[in-house]
Design a protein that fits this description.
The protein is an alpha/beta fold. The protein has one domain: Alpha-Beta Complex (Spore Coat Polysaccharide Biosynthesis Protein SpsA, Chain A). 32% of the residues lie in helices and 21% in strands. The chain has helices spanning 28-39, 52-60, 80-95, 113-126, 183-188, 213-229; strands spanning 2-7, 22-23, 26-27, 44-48, 100-104, 130-136, 145-147, 153-155, 172-182, 197-201. The strands form three sheets. The protein has a six-stranded mixed beta sheet with strand order 4-1-5-9-6-10, with helices on both faces. Helix 1 crosses helix 4 (113-126).
């Protein structure tokens, strides 16, 4: 059985209610649920939440909320891995063993069904434990700058100052959208960044982490642009 688990706790501090806040005409979480449904690769689409309002919205848009997340897994310090392990344990108590799990973030309105399917295909074809969405940095990270205690600029890697951009190795970051993994990989407790993980490369224009009001505004601009061009 293949399962999508969408973690969506209540109590967001920087963007209050962000998991169900209106985003381009629908609650934020609705976009993730609908992409998961459109992918047609899941036997069940589960939302793990501690919040009854989020649960109600999730059910309205076609996800299941077969259990409420306990308070011990709903604070600011609980990582996603613990939430997925809990979801697997709860589901397997009722419906038998799971083969693959996709952790799909509730704040991923730019994700597509094709991305989700490509993630599953990559997981199977690679033989890896995980397959996750990544995107390239738009600027060479070797030329990144820090601002020190004296408010002065310092290069992270001064040796890269004279190198041509095309000679610097391209670097990637977590797209913050989906994390496919085998059931055993999740249950091992080893995070995807530290395991045998295959990349699913996503274009930069479809990747935006949403933690601040500025992030939210940028994500809406990207979403509307994609909708206009049919991308």
């Amino acid at each position: 059985m293949k399962v999508a688990v969408i973690p969506a706790r209540g109590g967001s501090k920087r963007i209050p209610g962000k998991n169900i806040k209106d985003f381009c005409g629908k609650p934020m979480i609705a976009w993730s649920i609908e992409s998961a449904k459109s992918s047609k690769c899941f036997d069940r689409i589960i939302v793990s939440t501690d919040d009854t309002e989020i649960a109600e919205v999730a059910r309205k848009y076609g996800a299941e909320v077969p259990f409420m997340r306990p308070e011990s897994l709903s604070d600011d310090f609980t990582g996603t891995l613990a939430v997925i392990i809990h979801a697997i344990e709860m589901l397997e108590n009722d419906c038998g063993e799971i083969s693959e799990v996709c952790c799909l973030y509730a704040t991923a309105p730019l994700i597509t069904a094709e991305d989700i399917n490509r993630g599953l295909e990559t997981l199977k074809a690679s033989g890896c434990e995980y397959a996750i969405g990544v995107s390239s940095f738009s600027y060479p990270i070797q030329r990144a700058l820090l601002i020190d205690e004296q408010q002065k600029v310092k290069m992270v890697d001064p040796s890269a100052f004279s190198a041509r951009s095309q000679d610097l190795k391209e670097a990637f970051h977590d797209a913050g959208q989906f994390y496919w993994g085998t059931r055993n990989a999740w249950m091992s407790g080893v995070p995807s960044f530290l395991a045998d993980t295959a990349p699913v490369i996503l274009p930069r224009y479809r990747v935006q982490d949403i933690d601040t009001t500025e992030d939210w505004y940028r994500a809406e601009l990207l979403f509307r642009a994609m909708s206009s061009y049919g991308s």
